[in-house]
Amino acid sequence: MGTLLLLSVATLCFASAQHQGLIDYLEQRLVAIEGRISVWYEQSNRYASELREFKQQMIGLTENLEEGHEALHSDVEGVVTRVERVERELDYMETQNLAPPCVDMDRNLIEQEITTLKEINMAKYEKLSDCSDMISSFKAMKIVKKAGGPKGVWLKDTASGSGKVYVFNGTSGDVLYEFGTMRDLAASAGLSRGRPIKLPFPWSGMGHTVYKGYAYYVVEGMTFELIKYDLQNGSVADSAVFPADDQVRPVEPGDMTHILN
Ligand SMILES: *[C@@H]1O[C@H](CO)[C@@H](O)[C@H](O)[C@H]1NC(C)=O
Ligand SMILES: *[C@@H]1O[C@H](CO)[C@@H](O)[C@H](O)[C@H]1NC(C)=O
Description:
four-stranded antiparallel beta sheet, signal, coiled coil, glycoprotein, Olfactomedin-like_domain, Olfac-like_dom
């Protein structure tokens, strides 16, 4: 009985020792777990605070964005109201003036006109100062008809309006040529197309004319004689003789009137 008790006490002692070891082990584990937990706790706290900071930043940014958006919105609204006002003013001006005001275009037109004026003035100045231009004007002169000799005259009967052209070839001769029109003279090879009119007396000099169907010309010989020749029926209608001494005296109107009429 005593032995059994001793044994049981020993067993009990052993068991309690075993139990103590387990408790120590468990305590160690618990401390380790507590340490880890505290580390996690710290970490999660840090994350949480970082997340909070991040949230705060995001909220600030969002607020800034919203403010910017609102500012933009109000700016757009201001622009829209201004555009509407301009449109209203334009409408009003259009009702006031039928032609819409185009100040810029007018300025362009004025500038164009000024430039054109300047160019015209420049061209005028160049024309005045440029000799080559004058020479080119001479170049532009065309010889449309050449007939007969270098001297002589062609003339029209301006009083009759017949359009006939008369050619006195040279400074002397007794045949003058009559052309129906200026076109005939231009188309004629030389004076071939002209109607030759043989004069009863040769003319001399250049003092002749054709007037109302009569040729007036000077016959020079011993006397200074003026002939009025009827071109229609080929007869001397009248004549006037002046003394040779009077040649130097210009023929006065009075001398001519008796023969012209
Ligand atoms: C015209 O006169 C020139 C000389 O002056 C002469 O050579 C020429 O043959 C004349 N022409 C005619 C058609 O009479
Ligand atoms: C020529 O005609 C005029 C009138 O035109 C006439 O007086 C004159 O007698 C005429 N001469 C000849 C020669 O036919």
